[in-house]
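Why should sequence recovery work at all? Because a backbone constrains its sequence more than one might expect. Tight turns favour small or flexible residues, buried strands favour hydrophobic ones, and helices have their own preferences. The token representation captures these environments compactly. In the example below, the structure is given first.
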């Protein structure tokens, strides 16, 4: 049975930040499941960087089915966790079931890959204190308030926590995550 990886997300997640790791990890031979607040078709968004804008723009993105609801997740079944960004983390951080899932991964020191606004979730369970992270640059004050040392870099590795700023950093982020993942949870 292949090693399982969990992606936690919801509506308004950044399309690329869900689907790139989903496909890349499957390509490596991992069994990847997407969990959301409920089993439904999720509606992702596309965040782009356009000249003349002070921040990113948002457009409708892909739709994709959630494999299971947060309430159905047994964290013990999964070797690692991926936390995409987009707007989803803003409201998902208040989900009690998701908070239990996140805590279980950190308590077990399993590999966690977070990107963009995803660190809002790990900050919400107080798992960033004393750690080095990166995130979407506008979140630097949030990361510092969560007790983390913010680094403006493509990918930051702190033990089993791997973070990146946004989808343009995917190659560095996945390279670092796969390095940790292969050592802690090789494909079976």
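From this structural description, the recovered sequence reads:
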């Amino acid at each position: 049975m292949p090693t399982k990886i969990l992606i936690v997300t919801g509506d308004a997640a950044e399309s690329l930040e869900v689907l790139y790791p989903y496909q890349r990890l499957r390509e490596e031979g991992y069994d990847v499941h997407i969990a959301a607040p409920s089993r439904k078709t999720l509606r992702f968004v596309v965040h782009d960087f356009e000249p003349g804008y002070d921040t990113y723009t948002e457009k409708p993105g892909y739709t994709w089915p959630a494999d299971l609801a947060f309430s159905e997740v047994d964290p013990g079944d999964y070797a690692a966790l991926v936390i995409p960004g987009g707007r989803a983390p803003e409201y998902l951080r208040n989900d009690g079931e998701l908070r239990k899932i996140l805590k279980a991964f950190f308590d077990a020191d399993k590999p966690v890959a977070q990107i963009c606004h995803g660190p809002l979730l790990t900050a919400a369970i107080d798992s960033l204190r004393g750690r080095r992270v990166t995130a979407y640059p506008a979140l630097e004050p949030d990361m510092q308030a969560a007790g983390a040392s913010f680094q403006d870099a493509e990918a930051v590795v702190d033990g089993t926590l791997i973070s990146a700023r946004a989808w343009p950093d995917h190659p560095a982020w996945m390279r670092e995550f796969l390095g940790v993942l292969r050592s802690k949870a090789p494909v079976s």
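A few observations help interpret the result. The mean pLDDT is 97.
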